[in-house]
């Protein structure tokens, strides 16, 4: 259900009503999907890195491609894959830019630059040894030059302007803010939210400068409901850490406002805020609404 909500919201960028893929006009085509951010969008970029944030070992990937781990932080597909396949029909999987086996088809139809453990805050990837968003954009610049070499300048520009861009970040920033403590000494949650949103805005502006026009900016998830946070702050019953989730709400509200502002400021752009906080929290609090979903297994997945 959560994946469907995400897809419907993405389609809302191009349709007057959020009705799903079957109602997309036939002439609406998206040549590629590009992803930036953290583990929710990392399809294997962390594999060659010297970081503890990795998922290229079992049981990760047990339900994908015969059970061979790919570096996705999931048992199967993750958000870029789902949007690229069920949502837009671009291709089955969105590969990592770090994948040594990339071919010309992969290059023409989109890749992920995301890195598990990254964040809007420059301090976050320094702690986790992930790829900073600023470096992800540098890699995107390298990609653009490679794409031009494959399809030529004009087609490359068309691909860049008409593709879907996913920005999924902020989750590790929140976790580090409440757990590491360095930023809490420097900022209260409101000023830290401003820092994150300012960084997000800078990233989006740079994506636009490089050719992105349709950008989906995902909300921060209910970080207070992650297993580690519930264990430390959830008490005997391991409830969600409400203090953390309240901080997430503050960040999401500011991020929502900024995305609306950017759409007005950036000509011919559509910058859309995708709220995955509410459906994820609802699934955690009301698992019976979603069939056989187990609360504990859901949040630990």
UniProtKB/TrEMBL annotation:
InterPro entries: GDSL, GDSL_lipolytic_enzyme, Lipase_GDSL_AS, SGNH_hydro_sf, SGNH_plant_lipase-like. PROSITE patterns: LIPASE_GDSL_SER. Residues 1-17 form the signal peptide. Keywords: Signal. Belongs to the 'GDSL' lipolytic enzyme family. PANTHER family: GDSL ESTERASE/LIPASE EXL3, GDSL-LIKE LIPASE_ACYLHYDROLASE FAMILY PROTEIN, EXPRESSED. This is Uncharacterized protein. It comes from Penstemon smallii.
